[in-house]
Here is the input.
Amino acid sequence: MKKILVANRGEIALRVMKTARKMGIKVVAIYSEADRNAPHVRFADEAICIGPAPSKDSYLLGDKIIAVAQSLQVDGIHPGYGFLSENAGFAKAVTEAGITFIGPGPSAIEVMGSKLAAKEAVKAYGIPMVPGVDEAIEDIPKAKAVAAEIGYPILIKASAGGGGKGMRIVEQESEFEDQMQRAISEAVSAFGDGSVFIEKYIGSPRHIEIQVLADQHGNTFHLFERECSIQRRHQKVVEEAPSAVLTPEVRNAMGEAAVKVAQACDYVGAGTVEFLIDEDLNFYFLEMNTRLQVEHPVTELITGLDLVEQQIRVARGEVLSFQQEDLAMNGHAVELRIYAEDPMDNFLPSIGTLTRYRSPEGEGIRLDSGYEEGMEIPIHYDPMIAKLVTYAEDRPAAIQKMKEVIDAFELEGIASTLPFGRFVVEHEAFTSGKFDTHFVKHYFQAENIKESQKEEASVAAALAAQLLAEHQRQLQVPTIPSSDWRQKR
Ligand code: ADP
Here is the structure.
């Protein structure tokens, strides 16, 4: 592979390109008119404008991207995450155009793209699943009977779901139809597919996922877990590896289950099998994401493997150069997604210009960023600006480092999730490891941040007063009468 096109933008485009270049591979960027000056465009060896800002007119134009790749004699396309990364038709078209798709085959993407098809595919492998129905609801009285049997609350989920959309909690039977209609209409508008199904609503779950890696020669391994329970709107904000609660036995069992899920769909490349864990550490298969995850750096830091390099090697047909027993976890990594969102205002997107944007650097700090100081955050795309990751020998040290880095991070011009991250990493529930996916609901209020900012402000005011006093003391040199002063001149 001599030249790779990265069909993406922002931090992930840049991150993929850096590894490709390290491997001696040339990189091609595509960009929308809104991203003309983006770092990924400047980094690339060649860059092509693909269309206007809206994704549907640029980053989602599969055929156009393939045509660009062909015209530049590209031999591999990396889709990143989001956009076309889980589009089976795109993966197929890339391959048919004689270009290597750096990801799994179209059939694996298709099966795992539907939560129902995924459940069906892994059924034969004895993978634990959340109790519920594993087919689209067509008969409401029948579905209600199942719900009554499982016990309320239950969750109605869209089969085509993603990004936390099309998911509705039903507390009691009287709400069933109403919530189901809402889930269906959300699923139709977001995914064009209104199939929904029921799962038992796990009361206090943790979201723990397993990274898998498979080559084209039948080797499938797991790279341990990532803990992703700190979420807002069912979407992750803080992740870490390893999890603070898994025992070696549960870790092994989940790893083995994840490998089976990957094998069930003939998976090739890097993928993630997501599970929910209950308070007794029982785990249940949720879904498989057939791409590189946003939070992959925490796995890279504890395993020492570059997952993009592994993806490229696998796509080139190489055999994985290790066995399961060669893989080990070292140290601890914590990631904070820095979103252009206002944690004081319900995590609503915050648009504007990054008037100041400077991260501390040093050992144990990794910043995967798609922006630079002075850039505007476009409204057209996901509001994630960067991922801040800290790494240290153990969990308390990685958390402490994250605190220090957040404190020293300079970000102005927009609201961001940095103060939220600060709140999380110093919260007792997080530091003790006793938390679940309801962390935000249970503990977080805008006042928390306002309070800590007030505290910071009063510390700053006290410091300023002290400095002023010192300064004044220094100024208390004997006053020279003005006449003397004149004479001296
Ligand atoms: P999506 O594909 O939209 O991200 P997932 O199935 O991966 O949906 O679930 C996203 C999140 O929703 C999970 O991390 C968890 O917080 C919550 N969730 C999903 N299923 C359940 C369930 N059965 N019980 C409780 N929470 C759930």
The chain has four domains: 3-102, 131-200, 210-447, 451-478.
